[in-house]
Specification:
By secondary structure, the protein is mainly alpha-helical. Helix content is 76%, strand content 0%. The chain is built from 19 helices and no strands. The protein has helices spanning 2-17, 27-58, 62-78, 80-90, 92-116, 118-133, 135-143, 151-179, 183-219, 261-277, 283-309, 325-330, 336-345, 349-377, 382-405, 412-424, 429-439, 442-474, 478-498. Helix 5 packs antiparallel against helix 6 (118-133), helix 15 packs antiparallel against helix 16 (412-424) and helix 15 (382-405) runs antiparallel to helix 17 (429-439). It starts with a helix and ends in a 7-residue tail after the last helix.
Amino acid sequence: LRAVLFFRFLRMAVSAAAAGTEHGLSHRTVLLCALAIFICYCDRVNISVAILPMANTFHWSKEQQGSILGSFYYGYVVSQIPGSILAQQLGGRRMLGLVTVGWSAVTWLTPWAAHQGMGTLLCTRVLLGLFEGCAFPCVYSIFGESSPHTRSTNIGYLQFGVFSGTVFAFFASTALLRYWAAWEHVFHLFGAAGFAWYGAWHLLVLLPHRERVNVGAGVSGGGGIGVGGGGGGSSSKPKLSHPDLSTLLPTNSTMPAGRGAWGDAARVWAQAAWLLLRSRACIPIFVAHFCHAFAHFTVLAWLPSYFHDTEEPVASISPTTTSTPLHSALDGSSSASSASSSSNTHGSGGHNALVVPYLLMALFSMLASRIADRVLAAGADRTVVRRTCGALGFCGSGVLILLFSMLPARTLVSTTLLCLGLGWNAVSTAGHEANKLDVVGPEHSGLLQGISNTMAATSGIIGVPIAAQLYSQTQSWRAEFVLIACVYLFAGCFYGCFASARRIL
C-alpha cells in the first residue's frame, strides 16, 4: 500500500513536471510545492514512531516524551506570521527553498542532538517547528499567483501532500525501524530527502523563475523588480516591496527604501493583519480552519488510544490481533528479527484502520478540488461553490461521526462510518483553504495563511486536553466523537452561511 501510494504520487509529479499552464503557475511548481509539504509532514511525523526506540535507548519517561513531541509546536506557532512577511519580502520561492533546507538539516541533526542531551533535543525540535511553520505561508504566497480556475486543484495537491506524507512517514518509519534496526537512519533518510528536493527545486523552479525575472527587468528598462514577486531580483540589495493599503487602511503608509524600511514594513503588515482579522470575508475562513484543526489534532492524538482501548475487533481484523505492527516492532524490541517475527503473529487491522482516514482525506481532497474548479470554469458563482464545499465537507463529516457514536464500538459498520466521517472532511478544504486565495491578492495570501494557521495551531492546545477530560469523566470515547461531530456541524453551518469570495485586499 505504501509503495503504491508513493509511486502514484511520484508518477503524478513526473508526468506533470514537463507540462505548463497557460495562466498562473506551472504544474512543476505546484507539484514541487506539494512534494515539499509531503516531506514537511514526513519530518514532522517520523519522531512519533522513532520516539519509542529512542525512549528505550535514553530511558525517557512518558512526561519527557510528551515534552519532546510538544516542543515542536512552540516554534511552529510563533513562526507563521513572521514566515509570511519574510516570504513576501524575500520571495515565496526563495524562502520555501531556504526553510526546506533548514528543517531538513535539523531533521538530519536530530540523532546528534538526542545524544547530546534533553536540552539540545528540545531546542532542535523548537527549531524544526520554526522552519516548518514558514512552509505554508511560503506556499500560499506562491499559490497566490495561480489562475482563479486552478486554485482549488492546487490546494488539492497541497492537501494530498499533507495526508499522504503523514501516512507514508508512519509506514516508512515503521519499516525502517523493523528491518534496519537503527532509529538514527529514520532522521538521516528523511533529512536527505529534503536536500534532494531542494536540488530539483533549484533547477526546475528557482533558476527558470530568476531568468524570467531578469528578462522582465531588462525589458522594462532595467529598473529591477521587488523580491516580493517570489523569485528574487538581480540586484545585490533589492528594493523592498510593500502592500499598498492606502485605499483600505485609515492611514496612508508609504515605504521609504532607506533606513527604517523594515520597521515601516512591520507597521504596514500589522495594519494589513488587523484588516484581515476584522474582515467579514476572513472570519468564516478562520472559524473553519480552527474547527478543522481542532478535530484533526484531537483525532491525531487520541484515535490510536481509541483503537487500543476498544476490545471487540472489527470483522476485517484478525481475531488474534492484540497489538499493531508498530507496537510489535518497537515496544521493547531490540532487534529487527524479533520485530519481524512478531509482525507475523499479529494482525494489521488496527494499524490499517488508523491510516484509512488519511488515505480517504488525500482522495477526497483531490476529487473535491477538481470538481470545484470544473464547476467554477462552467461559470458558477465562486462564493456559492466555496460555501457548498465547506458545508458539505463539515456537515457530512458531522453527520457520519454522530451516526458512528450511536453504534457499538469496532463493528464493521461503525468503523466504516468513522473512517468515512474523518476522511470526508477533506472536502471542506476546497472551500475554506481555496477561499484564502480568493479574498486576497498574491502579495497578502501568505500573511492570511500565517494568521489562519496560527489560530488553527492553537486548537491542538485546547482540543487534546478537553478530549482527555471528557474521557476521564465519562470513561467512554463516545463523548469525544460527539464533540468532534458538533464542532464539524458548527463549522459547516457557520461557513456555509457567511463565507464570501469577495476580494478585500
